Amino acid sequence: MQGASTPLRGALLGLALERPGHGGDLASRLVARLGDTWRIDTNDVYRLLDQLVADGLLDAHEEPRRENRRRTRMVYRPTDQAESAMTAWMETLLPREPVRLGLHAKLAVARDQDAPRLLVALLEYERECLRLAQLVAPESGTQQRSWAALVMDCTRDAVWGQLQTDIDWAARTRRRINERMPVQSR
Amino acid sequence: MTPLLSFANVGKRFPDGGREITVLDGVSFEVQRGTFVGLYGGRRTGKSTLLRLAAGIEAPDTGTVRFQGRALIEMTGAQRVRLLRGALAFMACGDWRPNLGESVVDHVAMSLGSDGLTVRDARRRALGALDLVGLSATSGSEPADSLSLSERTLVMLARALVREPGLLLVDEPAVMPNLGDRGRFYRLLRELASERAMGLLVVSEEIGALQGADVLMSISDGSLCSTEEQGTVVPLPRRAPSPAAARSERPGR
User: Residue A134: which of B216, B221, B235 has the nearest Cβ?
Assistant: First the structure.
């Protein structure tokens, strides 16, 4: 049996443990919890749910819809193994994920003549990071510090921290390339 | 519609030893009334210089900075001072300078200057501004130099708001040590700007301080990158590398 492993898989399992739900419900709760910056695809959610069922961590049962009892939909419930898989995932030390993969790969093999294209790509990446930062919902700023509010703030902070690091990296890389480029080719 | 603040191809250089360094290079963007523009940048990227140019405290070497369509460079020194005491407020969060023994309410009231107000009226307006930022009349009677860092920042905001500006410029709001206080302060800034249809330009080293911005920009090497295409400046700066840098890069060719 596989554990919760990848981030979205683990998060989906955690949500099902909190409260069973149908695919659409779990997908919308996942987006609400992680934020728009994850760009979650509903098809990926269903694929991961199928995997979790295949791995024995979720049970899928057809249940009648509340609004129309004659129609059914698949509801996902955690199995007896789900709790321990979730705990194991929480305890797993994750390797740093390779980020900015495309740009990283381009940089690694770029030729001299690719410098202007790299600069444009880096600038676009920086702009995309700024757009993603805009998508993060602002903190409520309320006095109440529930556990749910705390984990939401920490999630938000994780996204901002990552985006800030990436913006700094893109700006620094552009600067280094600019300093290297002969003036006449700019 | 005429923007509240506009930068058109603005450049600024500073002497650095025997040469000049370019701090801002061809910077263009606009701040509309009721809009929150956030500018993210690391240290020494030119973001505070940009804010001082916006406030008319410094003049650009090239390009034009306009407030409500009027070029700041065309104003007299006295007109710019009047602007800074009225329609435009500049808040540098690390710059806390109350007079010795001054009460909080007097520190806020002092920023109204001698605008024909009686001391009583100035204090009444100051108390109103303190109330807006969530500080009570009781804390208004305390000596300004006894405040915590978070309270100081709120008082500075009250001091900026008491003149009912159309544009508020905020330099580095991420100074509060307590993260909860920071979150509440950012929300307060956004809400007050929105309620009063003020323009808000905030610069910070922390992107989280710019949460909720309508337009988000970053600055590096004197150039802007913006979520709005309009604020974007060319990716290839015209600045030539220093001779030393050019020499050090040449071997191998």
Answer: B216
B4 touches B181 (CB < 8 A): no
Does residue B233 belong to the interface with chain A, where contact is any CB pair within 8 Å? no
Task: Answer whether A123 touches B (CB < 8 Å).
Answer: yes
- Please give the Cα distance from B199 to B173 (Å, whole number): 16
ipTM of the complex: 0.79
CATH value at residue B218 = 3.40.50.300
Task: Name which of B179, B235, B238 is nearest A174 (Cβ-Cβ).
Answer: B235
Regarding whether B79 and B183 lie in a shared domain, the answer is yes
pTM above 0.80, yes or no: no
* Single residue among B136, B164, B192 that ends a domain in this structure: B164
What domain range includes position B53? 1-87+169-253
186 residues of chain A, pLDDT tens digit each: 455 567 889 889 999 999 999 999 999 998 888 877 778 889 999 999 999 999 999 999 998 887 777 788 899 999 999 999 988 877 776 554 544 667 777 777 778 888 888 888 888 889 989 988 888 878 776 666 788 888 888 888 888 998 999 999 999 999 899 888 765 444
Tell me whether residue B8 is in a domain: yes
Inter-chain touch A123–B240, beta carbons under 8 Å: no
